[in-house]
Amino acid sequence: MTSELKDDIENLKPKEGARTKWLMILITLLESICIFTLIENREIIDNVHRLLNSILLGILTAGLGQSLIQLFRRVYYSRLAKFCIWGAINGILSSLWIDTLLKIEPTSLRILVDQSVGTPFFQSAFILFNCAWENTDFLSSFRQTFLKMLGTSYAVWPLCSIISFNFLPPHLIFPFNCFVNVLWTLALGLII
């Protein structure tokens, strides 16, 4: 074979980066389709187990947010896996937290408790999870990221609480929370 022919054959092969990006596009599309399918079949899944929807929607929305970030950055499948696992944990914790908050009256107190207790708790839980995943020191990471994450979260989550607890029926609060979580995961991905 001539060197020209070898070069032509080599140029026809997809580059690793292009293949990886196409795979990430496919993953993002599949996550989106799964989210819509899950929402469409929410009642059926609730009959299997009350927290199954929370786990699945948490995984898919956290994964979607991370996939969207990686469409424009370098692809790290381990980071995608990390956010999906966090999504499962966060899905359970958020669902239980929302159930707890719905018992608090009046609504203004519910929002205050959500923002003063829930927001710092969830930010701390994510930092702890991230440190365990990355095998890094919790106190050092907490000092470096907590206030920055908390400040960013207060730009997003209070409005989510106000909308959720004032305007949405209880069965839509968690899915709305997950939708906002996609945006939040994008913000987290830019911070961490």
TrEMBL record:
Topology versus the membrane: Multi-pass membrane protein
Statement: the UniProt record of this protein carries the keyword Transmembrane? yes
Q: What is its main location?
A: membrane
Tell whether Transferase is among the UniProt keywords: no
Looking at the UniProt entry, the stretches that span the membrane are 21-39, 51-71, 83-104, 116-133, 145-167, 173-191
- How is this protein annotated for GO cellular component? peroxisomal membrane
Q: Which InterPro entries match?
A: Mpv17_PMP22 (IPR007248)
Q: Which UniProt keywords apply?
A: Membrane, Transmembrane, Transmembrane helix
Where does this polypeptide localize?
Membrane
Entry similarity comment: Belongs to the peroxisomal membrane protein PXMP2/4 family.
One of its Pfam families is: Mpv17_PMP22
Q: What is this protein called?
A: Uncharacterized protein
Q: What is the scientific name of the source organism?
A: Cyberlindnera jadinii (strain ATCC 18201 / CBS 1600 / BCRC 20928 / JCM 3617 / NBRC 0987 / NRRL Y-1542) (Torula yeast)
